[in-house]
Amino acid sequence: MAEKKTGKKFVQKPKFRNEKKYKTDKTEVKKYNTFGKKKAEKKIVVKSEKSLCPVHGKCGGCQLLDMPYEKQLKQKQKQVNKLLKPYCNTEKIIGMENPFHYRNKVHAVFGHRKDGTVISGIYQQGTHFIVPVDECLIEDKRADAIIRDIRDLLKSFKIKTYNEDTGYGLFRHVLVRTGHHSGQVMVVLVLGSPILPSKNNFVKALRKLHPEITTIILNVNNQKTSMILGEKETVLYGKGYIEDELCGHIFRISSKSFYQVNTVQTEKLYTKAIELASLTGKERVIDAYCGIGTIGLIASDKAKEVISVELNPDAVKDAIVNAKRNGIKNVRFYQNDAGVFMRQMADEGESADVVFMDPPRSGSDEKFLSSVVTLNPKRVVYVSCDPTTLARDLKYLTKHGYSAVTAVPVDMFPATEHVETVCCLHRVNS
Ligand SMILES: C[S@@+](CC[C@H](N)C(=O)[O-])C[C@H]1O[C@@H](n2cnc3c(N)ncnc32)[C@H](O)[C@@H]1O
After folding, report:
1. Among 114, 157, 239, 391, which is most buried by a count of CB atoms within 10 Å?
2. Is residue 251, in this structure, part of any structural domain at all?
3. Per its UniProt entry, which superkingdom is the organism in (predicted)?
4. Domain check: are 301 and 373 in the same one?
């Protein structure tokens, strides 16, 4: 329904509105639990007038959705400029041509109303209340369509949804990953216990509705946790992973491995990061927090050797396969905490010419940063998804012999407040 009204219209040409109209108004709304039961408590939510999205202000994402895209970019530019000003100049932010439907990873939580209607959507921030979502302007459209149809299948197969508060029920979440270039689609069905009734018929029915699905995985998560995926997995259909292409390389992506959510912007980000590393083919490179090996593998033909480290064992397995798949022989992978690994390298008297580091949102830690200083690379290329923790880590590195040369913000997350930045540091006196 909203596709015609919102998605298509605004993909073509987002309407830039008068600034005054973005000003938010306060609306009093009653809270409902997953069964549609009115709760006594009332909550004030800030809702923008005539939002592009019917659940804007309720789901907690897309804080900037109703702001013209140019203005979003300006806001992010300003934020990064301000935070990094003590360290270096910030170049112009790299934006998207079409800032909609970019998310290749889509998650929906399942529940039901009091009348038994199955709903799927997103938790209202900090609660177990499900905000029903049919489609989302930043998510892949195929993923949203699959999730809607799974909702209908649950009804026909009489499968009960899981209740986070009581622990009763079965069906918890769906995770869909799509390959932007390959078109491959992974569907992960997350259950509270291992048995999916009429499993084969369910898979058959889902594949009939969506022949584009290339793999279906059953994941069991019986823990009271905010984590979506549990430990145990069974492949119900296909290979159990998808592949996608980035910067001319093929990457295998498993359900639990990290993969950047915006493929179009990731290619720009990686190209910029590798350009800033100024590789000549002679360098010993470290790719820290390497995920499925992407940055190091893409940079490998410009370096003598690459040493990659990552904590998640599934991602390391993918990375090893990815090196083979792309015929790359000068990259080695280690499964370890990046700080511990770097400290070991430093203690063993090893060195490196260039360090790529791409830590999670919380940034790096002193163990890692002090080891970087000991390893004494000529250049450090820091890829960050939070300019606040980037600024904190730059403070450490610039106090310990490094100078930040430039920073480039990349808009990986349009419509949200988040911004990615790649920052290059040079060793002083090198
Ligand atoms: C922002 S992702 C970047 C991954 C990869 N560079 C990419 O672009 O796809 C951060 C990665 O760091 C990993 N990670 C988190 N904490 C870590 C740690 N202490 N040591 C090593 N890797 C860690 C995560 O599993 C994740 O794969």
Report:
1. 391
2. no
3. Bacteria
4. yes
Note the pLDDT of residue 59.
85
pLDDT category at 125 given cuts 50, 70, 90 is confident
Contacts of 426 (CB under 8 A, 6+ apart): 378, 379, 402, 403, 405
**254: in domain:** no
Lowest-pLDDT choice from 7-16, 92-101, 238-247, 292-301: 7-16
Residues with catalytic function: 385
| Residue 288 and residue 221 share a domain | no
Residue 115 lies inside a defined structural domain of this protein: yes
pTM over 0.90: no
- Taking only the tens place, the pLDDT of each residue in 378-421 is 999 999 999 999 999 999 999 999 999 999 999 999 999 999 99
Structural domain range at position 390: 72-98+262-427
Measured between alpha carbons, how far is 371 from 10 in angstroms, rounded to an integer?
A: 48
The domain spanning residue 409 has which CATH number? 3.40.50.150
Out of 180, 249, 258, 268, mutate this one to test ligand 1's pocket (max ligand atoms within 8 Å of CB): namely 258
Q: Are 267 and 211 within one domain? A: no
Do 277 and 207 reside in the same domain of the chain? no
- Domain end residue (candidates: 246, 279, 307): 246
What is the DSSP secondary-structure string of 280-317? -S--EEEEES-TTTHHHHHHGGGSSEEEEEES-HHHHH
Contact 363, 389 (CB under 8 A): yes
Answer yes or no: is 260 a known binding residue.
yes
Looking at the structure, tell me whether residues 17 and 80 fall in a common domain.
no
Separation of alpha carbons 104 and 139, rounded Å: 7
Instruction: Classify 356 as helix, strand or coil.
Output: strand
- Which ligand 1 atom is nearest residue 309's CA? 21
Same domain for 162 and 274: no
Residue pLDDT, tens place only, 286-339: 999 999 999 999 999 999 999 999 999 999 999 999 999 999 999 999 999 999
Atom 7 in ligand 1: residue holding the nearest Cα: 291
At 39-95, the pLDDT tens digits run 444 444 444 468 999 998 888 889 999 999 999 999 999 999 999 999 999 999 999
Count of domains in the chain?
Answer: 3
Same domain membership, residue 310 and residue 218: no
Q: Name the closest-CA residue to atom 18, ligand 1.
A: 337
Same domain, 49 and 122: no
Rounded to 10 deg, the angle between the 366-375 and 387-399 helix axes is 40
Please give all residues whose beta carbon lies within 6 A of any atom in ligand 1, as ranges: 258-260, 289-291, 294-295, 309-312, 315, 337-338, 358-360, 385
Domain membership of residue 237 (yes or no) is yes
Mean pLDDT, residues 133-138: 96
How far apart are the CA of 358 and the centre of ligand 1, in A? 6
